[in-house]
Amino acid sequence: MLNKSDEQLLNLPALANFLKEMTNTTGAYIGWLRPPIKPIEEDDDDKAHIDEENPKYIWFNTHDPSHSFMFEKVLKIDQGVTHDVFKDKEENASQPPPEEEGEEGFELKKSEDILDLE
Question: Most buried pick, 12, 67, 88, 98, via CB within 10 A?
């Protein structure tokens, strides 16, 4: 839907600001999930540049004022955990949680708060 409306795209900076304020975070930025681009030949069709064989990446194009450094940054699938939100629930459930590491001599404890989910 956002792809079809220029008016909606104009509101994305306001959305980033809203998300930052409502979640009480240090910043917010918004990205698009995009396929990689590959070289084309002069006689190729209008979709020949889209590389469907390789994983998509996130291209950040909107940010709140405090995170302007994120403009036009790219997050590849093997960087961080952000791409996990695009996986199927079953695929995420089959992967073990990442190991948590503490400082030397400091033991990490599980929360006893009943609101914390495992």
Answer: 67
The mean pLDDT values, 10 residues at a time, for the chain of 118 residues are 57 89 90 90 90 90 89 86 75 62 53 53
Q: Would you state the structure tokens that stand for residue 108, as one six-digit string?
A: 């990490």
* DSSP assignments along 83-96, one per residue: GGGGS-HHHHHTSP
Predicted pLDDT of residue 1: 45
∠ CA 70-96-78, nearest 5°, is 30
Distance CA 62, CA 70 (A): 8
CB atoms within 10 A of CB 63: 23
114: CB partners within 8 A, 6+ apart: none
Q: In the chain, what is the greatest distance between 2 CA atoms, to the nearest angstrom?
A: 64
